[in-house]
Design goal:
The complex is a heterodimer of chains A (297) and B (267). Chain A has 14 helices and no strands. Chain A has 297 residues and is mostly helical. Chain A has a single domain, classed as Orthogonal Bundle (MetI-like fold). Chain B is an all-alpha fold. Chain B has a single domain, classed as MetI-like fold (Orthogonal Bundle), CATH 1.10.3720. The model of chain B has no long low-confidence stretch (mean pLDDT 87). The chains are: A mainly alpha (297), B mainly alpha (267).
């Protein structure tokens, strides 16, 4: 420990060490740790009138969690959020893996830059506007209905926004590119010679992918899946813009709790959502056998 | 053999064409509608080419106020996230300590946390323990929590390539810590710092989920858009989308150009 401080002071000087401690300290304590702990604390306390706060009724309780686990509707919404996010993640992976491989290892020269730009531009466009575009397409008098009527496939417009399909479609569109870039980044570092060697030795392309490309791309796939799942499960914009009023999503339930000033219940639901995302991340780390460090390179 | 290769080419080409059509067609439709004089935002019936929706948008005072707020928030986030990100990057690249991996995990955890959680926790902390009601300040801090992680990762990736012998040489020649930092370390990190300013600004400007829960009754531009899109949709929103898309394209091209130039320099 003494060596640590001696080395730190020698390399960075007093001001440098103080700068690091102050900046990182503020961020770690006041922006990351304390707010999280307070949210958790909120989730463990009952909702009380202002005068009861700090009084004898203000004790830790699991009531808010019990309310969640015994509410059939909210449980169903929670499971819907899980499987929908799962579908979004799988579809995004299936679509993006070939794109990432093509960009990283097949195409060469100036075309790469152009294709990359073609990915970056929609990636940078505001999430709400990407969802708005689908709102326009799926509306009753929207492009899809008009097209189907014009082609004579349907007579009356279909209400695409009933049910959950529109939200899942929108989420896939809005978050798909969070899958491309992590996979592309790891694939780019794969040595092309390995692929050539495997091909020369007669390996089929399926085998090349299974034995060489996929093992190499594991960290990227894990990051992409974690990010996509987290974004899909945590989006409040997609259900707000594309969901039907009769079918709520988990983030909307959280939002309603806060709008009704039941912060304690809202905090409990938010904690459940965070646990879900953490569990998913650890499953990904286990499946792909990567460390948290490789996850965010 | 040759024919199977050309079939493969056609399949790949078709796949790419489909993928990019999927990515861009919705945005193109949205853009076309912005110029249709039809009051309902749709392509048909086409009632003539017009710029009127841009005029309509410009008359909306709420929009200008939200835009101003967005700038205030974005500049503040940059001012918080880049210096702290630099501190984090120096901590993790320059100092050796046992709990390093653990600290790293905690510092990047905001990126892997759903945005609404960051908004909620920031709001609860400041509202009930610091007596600061939800507003621009809580929105700034909620956003900065995870944007700082991005800045740190960006700065780290450059700091890891730093040649420490440069600093040692300077120390041997009698330079002070301050001189070494301003003359050697900072100039080396400059490109990464500039990129992280751009990234932090864009991330903040686009943020919806975290902001929604932290901002209380105030509005940034995404919150304004969200509110409008949930109520009555006017093609003025398409006009706003066109402005956003145009700016994004310019921003993405400059950012990518810079990044590439930096990559070439490294190689």
């Amino acid at each position: 420990m003494r060596d640590f401080w001696k080395n730190a002071l020698r390399d960075l000087g007093k001001i440098g060490v103080a700068y690091i401690i102050i900046t990182v300290g503020i961020w770690l304590v006041f922006m990351i740790l304390i707010p999280q702990l307070i949210m958790f604390d909120y989730s463990l306390r009952p909702m009380l009138a202002l005068r009861d706060i700090g009084g004898p009724k203000d004790v830790w309780t699991l009531k808010n969690y019990i309310v969640f686990f015994t509410n059939k509707l909210h449980m169903a919404i929670f499971f819907k959020t899980i499987w929908s996010s799962f579908i979004v993640t799988l579809v995004a992976l299936a679509i993006c893996y070939p794109i990432a491989f093509y960009l990283a290892k097949v195409v060469r020269g100036g075309k790469v830059g152009l294709l990359m730009l073609g990915l970056i531009i929609p990636y940078w466009i505001n999430e709400l506007l990407r969802l708005f575009a689908w709102q326009l397409i799926l509306a009753d008098s929207g492009i899809l209905n008009q097209l189907l009527i014009l082609l004579g496939i349907i007579v009356d417009p279909i209400n695409f926004r009933a049910g959950n399909g529109a939200v899942i479609l929108g989420m896939t569109y809005a978050y798909i590119l969070f899958m491309v870039f992590p996979i592309y980044n790891v694939m780019e570092s794969l040595d092309r010679n390995q692929l050539d060697a495997a091909r020369d030795l007669g390996a089929s392309w399926l085998r090349i992918h299974r034995r060489i490309v996929m093992p190499h791309a594991k960290p990227g796939i894990a990051v992409g899946c974690t990010m996509t799942f987290m974004l899909a499960a945590g989006t409040v914009a997609a259900p707000q813009l594309l969901g039907s009023p009769s079918s709520f999503w988990f983030t909307q339930v959280i939002n309603t709790n806060f709008e009704c000033a039941n912060w304690n219940q809202g905090a409990a639901y938010a904690t459940v959502l965070m646990l879900l995302c953490m569990i998913f991340m650890f499953i990904m780390l286990k499946i792909f056998k990567v460390g948290l460090k490789e996850l965010t390179q | 053999m040759k024919s199977s290769k050309s079939i493969f080419r056609i399949v790949v080409g078709a796949y790419l064409a489909l993928f990019f059509a999927y990515m861009f067609l919705p945005l193109i439709f949205m853009t076309i509608i912005a110029f249709n004089a039809n009051e309902v935002p749709q392509i048909t019936p086409w009632k003539g080419f017009t710029f009127m929706w841009f005029g309509e948008l410009a008359k909306d005072e709420q929009m200008w106020k939200a835009l101003l707020n967005s700038f205030i928030v974005a500049f503040s986030v940059v001012a918080i996230s880049v210096p702290i990100g630099l501190g984090g990057a120096l901590l993790l690249t320059r100092l050796q300590f046992k709990a390093r991996d653990f600290v790293y995990g905690v510092l990047v955890s905001p990126i892997l946390t759903p945005g609404i959680i960051l908004g909620i926790s920031t709001f609860l902390f400041w509202d009930s323990y610091m007596n600061v009601p939800g507003g621009l300040w809580t929105a700034i801090l909620g956003q900065a929590t995870f944007i700082t992680s991005y800045c740190m990762l960006l700065i780290m990736s450059r700091a890891q390539r730093f040649d420490l012998t440069q600093e040692e040489a300077a120390f041997d020649l009698g330079a002070s810590h301050r001189q070494v930092f301003w003359k050697i370390t900072l100039p080396f990190l400059r490109p990464a710092l500039i990129s992280s300013v751009a990234l932090a600004f864009m991330q903040s400007f686009d943020n919806y989920n975290t902001t929604l829960f932290a901002i209380g009754v105030e509005q940034t531009l995404p919150i304004y858009i969200g509110t409008k899109l949930r109520s009555f949709i006017s093609p003025a929103m398409n006009a706003l989308a066109v402005v956003f898309i145009a700016l994004t394209i310019i921003g993405a091209i400059t950012y990518e150009y810079r990044r590439r130039r930096e990559l070439i320099k490294i190689r």
